[in-house]
Amino acid sequence: MKTLTNIDKAAYLFLIVIFGLGIYYANTDLQYFDEVYTVEDGFVENGSAIFLFTSSMLLLYRFFKFFKHKDLLWKIGILAMAFVFFFGAGEEVSWGQRIFNVQSSEYFMENNAQGETNLHNLVVNDTKINKLIFSQLLTVVLVIYLIITPFLYRKFEWVKNLANKFAVPIVQWHHTISFLVGTALLVFISSNRKWEIYELAFSVIFLLIFIKPFNKEIYSSNS
After folding, report:
1. For a surface tag, which of 139, 145, 149, 205 has the fewest beta carbons within 10 Å of its beta carbon?
2. DSSP H or E stretch at residue 88
3. Number of neighbouring beta carbons within 10 Å of residue 52
């Protein structure tokens, strides 16, 4: 495992505090945990949006910085990831609906579980999109990306070439370990609002991955 940078250490210390306080409040004052600590538009949820947005901006910065030095597939890959994280940030704050006091349209009032202008809380044929896509599908994607892909990248040259060609950052093992630890810590939080903390951890760790992936050469003009 490569040595942790100061940014890594600060980020992991931040997550230790967030999880520590979350576990404490969830087991001593569940109402405070639900209605203050992880409340909608609170510190935890807004933190997730900020880190997701920061990842998106970092990717866009690198897109323009290395534009002249990279081929089309690299540009497509990094733009796609920038869009995904920008979309995630927007969804976290319902695209600024509550910030700007914008009323949801009739469609979202009728089909959104929380009456908000976002996609992840939509209900289609009694099925919550959040549960189907943003929970089940995302879990599969994370397992493949965090656990399987790093092994394949190190073992097969064609996987390495494909990932580098599309600017896919490969996790360092401490990124994988931090996700697994965060997942395990959720056991100590009984509230359904615990997923807000998990989303914050997701956003922080992915920013660390983008800052310094295992294949950091993809963010170089020489590769």
Report:
1. 139
2. helix 72-92
3. 27
β-bridge partners, 127: 124
C-alpha atoms less than 13 angstroms from C-alpha of 35 in its C-beta half-sphere: 4
CA distances from 11 to 3, 14, 118 (A): 14, 5, 28
SS3 per residue for 156-169: CHHHHHHHHHCCCC
DSSP per-residue letters across 39-69: -TTSHHHHHHHHHHHHHHHHHHHHHHHTGGG
Q: How many CB atoms lie within 10 A of CB 128?
A: 16
Q: In this predicted structure, which of 78-87, 101-110, 144-153 has the lowest mean pLDDT?
A: 101-110
Please state, in angstroms and as integers, the Cα–Cα distance from residue 80 to each residue in 22, 65, 167, following that order: 33, 16, 10
The three-state secondary structure class of 138 is helix
Closest CA to 91 of 112, 135, 113, 121: 121
Q: Say how many residues make up the chain.
A: 223
pLDDT of residue 222 exceeding 80, the answer is no
Amino acid symbol at 129: I
